[in-house]
Specification:
single chain, alpha+beta, five-stranded antiparallel sheet, five-stranded mixed sheet, 12 strands, about 50% helix, elongated
C-alpha cells in the first residue's frame, strides 16, 4: 500500500515547527492519523536492547530510546516524499528508498515531540542506504544567563521549562527560596514559623548563618580550626616519627635488642625501645622503619658502585638457630679512587650446594639491579662447593662471565700453611698439644686464674722496684694466658708470647697445684707439665714457633685490611718468602742464642750440642744416635722452616699466574721501576670486554706517556702503595688524561685479597642474633645487620630520606607533612 500523494497528506510541516511544550492530547491526535496503517504496522518493545521495534512488511526500524542521539531531521520542514526522493531538510538528510518509511518517520516525530520531550535517542536502520545517524533533542535549551547568583533576583524554578528544571537545579543550586514572596499576618504562631524558617541543621538559613559568622571571625571559624587541627596532627606525627627514628638509630648502631621479655605496664624492664619511646610501638612499624634504614644504605652502596666493575666475596655459616646463612660482600673502587668493601645482604639458603648459592646470588643481583657482566673477581675460601673446578660456585659464575677471576683468600691460605706445619711435623704437633694442656690447666678454674694473675702482679711489682723493667702508658697491664683458637692460628702467636712473658708465674701455679690439689690425678698431671716445660726441647720449640708465627702474623693482619690490594698482597707474600729463606740460612745462631739465654735466666739445663742423643719416638733397638746439634738444627729447625717455605710456595700458586704476574708490574715502589709496558698491554688483552682492539693499540703509547709524566710530577714522589697511587691520580685528575691506564688500575684494585670482611659479618651476626633473640626472622636480621655493619653510611643519611621511604612503603593512615607549612596571612 502506497501513501497518499503529498497534496493529500496531512500538513505535518507546520506541526513540526511548533513549540515543544504542546499538550499530549495533540500527540494523541497525530497517532490516530496513523490508525489507517494499523494493518501494516506492528509495534513491540525489545526489553533487552531497550528499543521500540516497528515491523512494516520487511522493513525493521530501531529507535534507541536510551541513547542520547536520534534522527537529526526531526525538525525538518514537512514530511518525507516518495521513494528515491531526498527530503529537503538539512545537509544530513535521510534518503528514504521505500514508501513504508514515511510511516516510520511520522511515528518517530510524534514520539519524540509529544511523549519523549526530555530524552535523547539514537536512530539506526538495517537498510544499507540509511548510513547516517541524526539527532533528536528537546527544543528547549538551558540559557545560563537566566541563572542569577543573587537569590532575590533569580527566577523561581516554576518559571523554567519542565524539561530543563533538573539542569537548573544542578547548575543554580536551587533548594529553597531565600526570600518570602507573600506577607505574614499570623503573628500568634510567629515563634513556630520562625523555627520552621530556621529549619534543620543543614537548612539554608543555618548554612548562611555559619558562613557569615566564619566570615566575621575567620580565625575561630570551624573550617580554620579543623584545618589547623589537621596540621597540628600532621606535625605531631612527624615529631613522633622522628623521635622514634632517633631511638632506632641508637639501638641499631649498638646492636641492641628492641623488645623486652616482659613489656607489661608493671614491668621494670620493658626493653630498650619501650623505655625510650612510648609512641608507635607496633612491631610492624619498627620493622618497616628498620627496613627503610637498610634500604637507604643499600641504595647508597649501589649508587656508589654505579657502572664500575666490582668483585664478589661470599661465605656461608650457621646462625644461632641452626639456619644456613650466605653472606655477600662487594668490593669496588669509588669515585675518589678508594678501595671499598661493603656488606650487601645476608641470605638464607636451604643448602650449601653450589647451585643453591648461585641461584641466591642471581636473585640478589636482580633485586638490587646489579649485572653479573660487571663482575671481575671472586673471593671464597677453599671449600669444594666454592672453588670446585667443575661444579663449584666459581665454575658456575665463570660459565656466564669468563672474566670474573677467582682468587683464593690469601689470609685463609696463610692459615692453612701454619696448620699443615703444626700438624705434619711431629715435634711441632707435640709442642702445641702441651701448650694447650698448660693453658687449660692453669685456667681450669677461677681460683687458678686469680692465683696466676696475682702471682704475675707481684712479680711485676718486684721487677719495677728493682729497676729491671720500665713502665709507661700501656705497659705491664694485668694479663692472663689466652686460650688458642682452633681456626684462628693468629691467636697461637699471642698465647706463646704470654707464656714466655709469664713463664715464672705459670711454673709457680703448676707447683701450687702439685702441692695443694686434693686430686692425685691433677697433682701428677701438673708435675708432668712442669717437667715438660723445664725441658730444653720445649723451650727451643717455643722460641722457634714464636718467631715463625710472628713473621706470618704480620702478613695475616695486613692481608685482612679492607683497603688492601692484590699488588701489595703479592709483594708482601714474596717478602715473607724471602724472610723465611733468610731465616733458614742465617737464623740458627739467632734462635739458639735466645734459647740459651732464656734457659739460663730460668735455671733450665742447657745440653751440649756436641754430645750424642737418641731420637725419641722409636723403640730402643731402632733408635738412632745423633748429636744434639744435628737433632736441633736439622731434625727440628730445618724441617720446620723448610715445611713453611714449601707450603708457602704450594699454597700461593696464584702469585705465579700470568694475571697476577702482569698485575705486579703496577706496583709504584722505587719510582715505578717495575712498570713493564709489555706485561700491562698483555693484561689488557685478558679483558676484551673492557679494552677493545683499538684500546690495546692506543694503551701502549698512553702507558709510556703516563709513566714519564708521573715520574716528573712531585705529587707522586714517595708513593709505595697502589691504593694511595690511585687516589693521587684522581686528586690530580690524571684519570681523565689517561683513562685507559686508570681503568686498568681500577680493575686491579677491585680484585679481592681476603675474605676477612665476610668473616666480620659472621661475628656481627652473633652480636645481633643471640640466644635470647634466636627467633629473629631472616629479613629482620638482614636489615639490622646492614645498619649495624655499615654505620658510616648510616650516619650520613638524613632523617628525611628515611621517613619519606618509610611513608612510601605502604598506605598509612597519616600522611607525612612537609618540613614547614607556607605562612598563611
Amino acid at each position: 500500500m502506497n501513501p497518499t500523494p503529498t497534496s493529500q497528506q496531512p500538513n505535518v510541516h507546520g506541526n513540526m515547527e511548533e513549540d515543544g511544550n504542546q499538550e499530549r492530547t495533540e500527540g494523541q491526535r497525530w497517532v490516530s492519523l496513523l490508525g489507517s496503517f494499523s494493518s501494516m504496522m506492528k509495534i513491540s518493545e525489545d526489553k533487552e536492547s531497550k528499543s521500540i521495534v516497528l515491523n512494516v512488511d520487511s522493513v525493521v526500524c530501531r529507535s534507541i530510546v536510551a541513547s542520547p542521539t536520534s534522527l537529526s531531521a526531526a525538525r525538518g520542514p514537512g514530511p518525507p516524499v516518495h521513494r528515491g526522493v531526498a527530503h529537503p531538510l538539512q545537509q544530513d538528510s535521510v534518503h528514504f528508498v521505500r514508501d513504508q518509511k514515511v510511516i516510520i518517520w511520522l511515528f518517530q516525530q510524534i514520539m519524540e515531540r509529544f511523549f519523549k520531550p526530555k530524552r535523547f535517542r539514537e536512530g539506526s536502520s538495517n537498510d544499507p542506504n540509511i548510513n547516517k545517524v541524526v539527532e533528536i533533542q528537546s527544543h528547549v535549551e538551558l540559557d545560563l544567563n537566566d541563572i542569577v547568583s543573587d537569590p532575590g533576583l533569580r527566577k523561581s524554578i516554576e518559571e523554567f521549562d519542565i524539561s530543563i528544571r533538573d539542569q537548573v537545579r544542578e547548575r543554580g543550586r536551587y533548594k529553597e527560596d531565600a526570600f518570602v514572596k507573600n506577607g505574614f499576618i499570623n503573628w500568634k504562631n510567629a515563634l513556630e514559623r520562625f523555627n520552621l524558617h530556621n529549619g534543620a541543621v543543614d537548612s539554608c538559613h543555618n548554612h548562611a548563618r555559619v558562613q557569615v559568622e566564619s566570615f566575621q571571625d575567620q580565625r575561630h571559624s570551624v573550617s580554620n580550626i579543623l584545618r589547623a587541627h589537621g596540621r597540628d596532627i600532621e606535625v605531631s606525627y612527624r615529631i613522633r616519627l622522628t623521635a622514634m627514628l632517633d631511638v632506632r638509630r641508637f639501638l641499631l648502631k649498638q646492636g641492641l635488642s628492641f623488645r623486652g621479655h616482659d613489656e607489661s605496664s608493671n614491668s621494670l624492664n620493658r626493653g630498650n625501645f619501650l623505655d625510650g619511646n612510648n609512641q608507635m610501638i607496633s612491631p610492624a612499624i619498627q620493622k618497616d622503619l628498620t627496613r627503610a634504614c637498610a634500604s637507604e644504605i643499600t641504595l647508597s652502596i649501589i649508587e656508589d658502585i654505579g657502572n664500575n666493575v666490582f668483585s664478589l666475596m661470599v661465605d656461608e655459616s650457621r646462625d644461632i638457630s641452626v639456619k644456613e646463612q650466605m653472606r655477600v660482600v662487594l668490593r669496588y673502587v669509588n669515585k675518589r679512587g678508594q678501595v671499598i668493601e661493603r656488606f650487601l645482604a645476608i641470605v638464607h639458603v636451604s643448602d650449601t650446594s653450589s647451585r643453591s648459592l648461585k641461584d641466591a646470588i642471581d636473585a640478589l643481583f636482580a633485586k638490587h639491579g646489579l649485572s653479573l657482566s660487571r663482575l671481575r673477581g671472586q673471593g671464597y675460601d677453599g671449600a669444594s662447593n666454592m672453588r670446585g673446578e667443575f661444579n663449584g660456585l666459581k665454575s658456575l659464575i665463570l660459565q656466564e662471565n669468563p672474566y670474573a677471576s677467582y682468587i683464593h683468600c690469601f689470609s685463609h691460605q696463610l692459615q692453612l700453611v701454619i696448620i699443615v706445619v703444626a700438624k705434619s711435623n711431629l715435634n711441632a704437633s707435640e709442642f702445641f698439644n702441651y701448650v694447650t694442656m698448660i693453658v687449660n690447666t692453669t685456667g681450669a678454674s677461677c681460683k687458678r686464674r686469680d692465683q696466676l694473675r696475682q702471682i704475675e702482679h707481684n712479680r711485676i711489682v718486684v721487677m719495677l722496684e728493682g729497676g729491671d723493667i720500665s713502665t709507661c702508658s700501656g705497659k705491664n697491664q694485668e694479663t692472663n694466658l689466652v686460650r688458642p683458637g682452633d681456626t684462628r692460628w693468629g691467636s697461637h702467636y699471642l698465647t706463646l708470647g704470654r707464656l714466655l712473658s709469664m713463664w715464672p708465674s705459670v711454673i709457680q701455679v703448676l707447683e701450687n697445684i702439685c702441692d695443694d690439689s686434693s686430686s692425685f690425678d691433677s697433682r701428677g698431671f701438673a708435675k708432668s707439665l712442669i717437667q715438660k716445660m723445664e725441658n730444653y726441647e720445649f723451650v727451643f720449640m717455643l722460641h722457634l714457633m714464636k718467631m715463625i708465627l710472628g713473621m706470618t702474623n704480620e702478613l695475616s693482619l695486613v692481608l685482612q685490611q679492607k683497603d688492601q690490594n692484590i699488588v701489595q698482597a703479592i709483594s708482601l707474600i714474596e717478602s715473607v718468602k724471602d724472610q723465611f729463606q733468610i731465616f733458614r740460612e742465617d737464623g740458627w745462631h739467632t734462635i739458639i742464642d735466645k734459647v740459651n739465654t732464656f734457659c739460663e735466666l730460668n735455671e733450665i739445663p742447657v745440653p751440649e750440642m756436641k754430645d750424642n742423643c737418641m731420637i725419641g719416638g722409636r723403640s730402643r733397638r731402632r733408635r738412632q744416635v745423633i748429636t744434639n746439634l744435628h737433632y736441633y738444627r736439622v731434625e727440628i729447625f730445618y724441617q720446620v722452616v723448610d715445611s713453611v717455605i714449601q707450603e708457602m710456595n704450594t699454597r700461593f700458586l696464584e702469585v705465579g699466574t700470568e694475571l697476577l704476574s702482569c698485575i705486579a708490574c703496577l706496583h709504584p715502589r722505587n719510582s715505578f721501576s717495575e712498570f713493564n709496558v709489555q706485561k700491562l698491554v698483555r693484561l689488557c688483552d685478558l679483558y676484551p670486554e673492557d679494552f677493545s682492539t683499538n684500546d690495546c693499540i692506543v694503551i701502549e703509547q698512553q702507558f709510556q706517556n703516563f709513566i714519564h709524566n708521573i715520574q716528573q710530577d712531585p705529587n707522586f714522589f714517595g708513593i709505595e702503595d697502589l691504593g694511595s697511587f690511585a687516589q693521587k691520580i684522581v686528586e690530580t685528575q690524571k684519570n681523565q688524561a689517561y683513562p685507559l691506564v686508570y681503568r686498568l688500575i681500577e680493575m686491579t684494585l677491585a680484585l679481592p685479597v681476603a675474605t676477612a670482611s665476610v668473616e666480620r659479618v659472621f661475628s656481627a651476626m652473633k652480636t645481633i642474633k643471640t640466644d635470647l633473640r634466636n627467633r629473629m626472622g631472616d629479613e629482620w636480621m638482614n636489615d639490622s645487620l646492614v645498619v649495624y655493619i655499615e654505620k658510616d653510611i648510616f650516619s650520613t643519611i638524613e632523617n628525611e630520606q628515611i621517613l619519606q621511604r618509610f611513608q612510601k612503603m605502604k598506605s598509612r593512615r597519616m600522611q607525612l607533612p612537609p618540613l614547614s607549612y607556607p605562612t598563611i596571612t
